[in-house]
tRNA-specific adenosine deaminase
Amino acid sequence: MSFPLPLPMRRALDLAAEAAIAGEVPVGAVITRDGKEIAEARNAMRSGLDPTAHAEMVAIRRAAEALGTPRLDGCTLWVSLEPCAMCAAAIALARLDALRFAAEDPKGGGVLHGPRVFGQPTCQHRPDVLGGIGEAEAAAQLRSFFAERR
């Protein structure tokens, strides 16, 4: 039995597809609060000449601006790929309540892999984490993107 993806994850995957078309690694992110979208973004490192312009970072900045606060209490981040260590640290600093992601990232992930940021004793905030939502589609996007470049 197949279930439809939650709308924020569907949007994150669509943003990831847009990123790939633009020549960026296909990652998209959406931030919601009380079921409403607050901010969204896709990877923009190449186009913005900014190595920190990961989809999660841009979405966090936009959500903070939209809400007028750096604390994103009550918000959920939906992202198509497991966040890296930089993004995981930003998630903790922004105090996001929850993280939902599609594909795991064994090489560059910072949540379930690598440094496991939320499991470190120095991490002062740990969001509720759930992965694997839309994993097959996200993994296919990434495989296709990198296969075209090899």
Observations:
- The longest strand covers residues 36-42.
- Helices lie at 7-21, 45-48, 55-67, 85-94, 135-149.
- Residues 7-141 form a domain with the Cytidine Deaminase; domain 2 fold (CATH 3.40.140.10).
- The CA atoms of residues 98 and 128 lie 4 Å apart.
